[in-house]
Amino acid sequence: MKKIAVIGAGNVGSHIVSAGIAEDLPVEFLLLDQNQGFETAQVLDLKDSLLFSPDAKVKGVDFGDEDLQDADIFVITAGTAQKPGESRCDLLGRNIEILTSIRDSLGQLKDSAIVILVSNPVDILTQVASDIFGLAEGQVFGTGTSLDTSRLRWRLAEKLNKNITEVTGYVMGEHGDSEFVAWSTVEGSDVFSQEEKDQMQESVMKAAYEIIEGKGSTYFGIGAAAVGILKAILEDRQEVLPVSVPLKGAYGIENIALGVPASIGENGVDYVEEVDLSEEELQKLKACADKLKKLLESVC
What we know:
The protein is α/β, with parallel strands linked by helices. It has 9 helices and 11 strands.
């Protein structure tokens, strides 16, 4: 049985575990939080759902536990929460400190371990994690624009009156304010006017702010997105998903992680899928890279 360690038992971490249990993933979830009482309560609550998902398991752990050292996949959700009106990049400095502390507390991971970043700003934290965890290329990546792409596709499905599985398209770049809809990847996008496209992109980009203002944080969507990524790994699906990957030449970009379509299998990211972008879209992607590089340099 594979072991998946989820670092951070708050709304996002607990919803990832809950979604994984609901999918009856044949794994043992190891939940860790600095607040031990909260962690214990979350584990007890999650265990109450196991009757309906007999192949899944969940337990609480702490840094240094043998089970944690033997984990196959680490999902990092811990970090300072995004506040209403605050951009993801406002979180950068303090969440880099938290990530570094987690790395130091975990110690040396086994060579085959996979680390998935969920904490925001996910792209920069993914780049930092790829530098500090010492794992092979492809074994450290982030959820990237998977959630944004889901936000795009249900809107497309509703407007086109189709099932969500029948629509295509990716949101690419930063998981944040400079993200963009790659309309060249949306089949049938010519039915939309430029005004409609602009409105849909704005709706996708602002979705998180609207949710946070209304209820404090987002967690259902990212929980489902993370479990979709986990299933691609556990089942070696070689599924192309828009995740945050430290780029090393793809799209002419290096030394920064961005949300791009990539093939996900049992070893993590197997390769970046370089989809055909328009020249304008390629420039937007490069602009995202330049923005995030400058932010990372300003902190590090």
